[in-house]
Amino acid sequence: MNILITWTSWFIWFFLAKRLLERWNNVIWVDIENDYYDINLKISRRNILEKYSNFKFYKIGLENLMILEQVFIENKIDKVCNLAAQAWVRYSIENPFAYIESNIVWFHNIINLSAKYKVQNFVYASSSSVYWKNEKQPFSIEDKVDNPVSLYAATKKTNELIAHTYSHLYNLPTTWLRFFTVYGPYSRPDMAMLKFALKMKKWEKIEIYNNWDMQRDFTYIDDIIDWIVMSLDQINKYEIFNLWNDKPVKLEYMINTLEKYLWIKANKIYLPMQDWDVKTTWSDIEYTYKKTWWKPKISIEKGVENFAIWFNEYYK
Q1: Is 209 part of any domain?
Q2: Alpha carbons 217 and 281: distance in angstroms, whole number
């Protein structure tokens, strides 16, 4: 089985590639390895993957359609996992053009080639940020998400519409996964847990929005990877899943737990709510459970402990 994964040097897809390689799938990786954040962290991930004989790396950008098509031809791709997107809601306010190119143009390039070469399954990352205008909690896949509050969310909603069109026109099986607040070892430095841990290590101030009154549905990376692998194995003409823990945790509790396992006290500064942010994220995973019989297993306490062990080793 030849599986193409875009941007494997990024957090979630690195763990997915590792799991698939351990299952003896052939993983073909396409990544430009840009400098959006610490390139050394990306190289550390790639160094781990390159130890596997069934791993192949192409350092190209997804805007290069001709070379990307050669990857499909040379490797006879069976399935595609696409993460090639500019991440983070806040950065979309600062640099909107990066989101149009990465999240829409690149997405269309990869899904168009997937349809052309008739891959068995196209699985891609959406985001829970599409829900953030909704006041009803928990968020459900049946909720309307037609009023995004950030450009990042708007591009993810666009991806979902494009995927629906390709499923309808070309009979391409597509599954979109709405992630949010995934955490664990090797996570991105702009994600809450690693961002806070690095600031705590340097005794820098941690910005706490809405004066502590924030909750997030933190989901540990191992649970997410279990879910993605099942989505790859399960062929659906057009499907959507919420990939969350279904147990919102107060941001204060997460930081207190991080302090406990890092043995460092956080230096906190309290700020008002941001226009593009949301007070609580809470997912209804009932539909996902009915379709896959899967539920998350890792508690926030165990997940933070695992993260802290990695952090102390990696950032000696």
Answers
A1: no
A2: 6
Spatial distance between the Cα atoms of 219 and 31, rounded to a whole number of angstroms: 25
For residue 234, is it within any domain? yes
pTM (predicted TM-score): 0.88
For residue range 225-238, list pLDDT tens digits in order. Answer: 998 999 999 888 89
For 104, the domain range is 2-183+219-243
Beta strands at 267-271 and 238-243: parallel, antiparallel or unpaired? unpaired
CATH code for the domain of 104: 3.40.50.720
Residue 250 lies inside a defined structural domain of this protein = no
Kindly list the distances between the CA atom of residue 89 and the CA atoms of 59, 149, 153, 253, in Å, as whole numbers in the listed order: 26, 10, 7, 23
- In the block, residue with structure tokens 């690095």: 198
pLDDT in tens, 64-100: 899 999 999 999 999 999 987 666 666 667 777 778 8
Catalytic center residues: 152
Tell me: the pLDDT tens digits for 133-162?
767 777 777 788 888 888 888 898 999 999
**Structural domain count, the chain:** 1
The sign of the CA dihedral 129, 130, 134, 140 is negative
Q: Establish if 197 belongs to a structural domain.
A: no
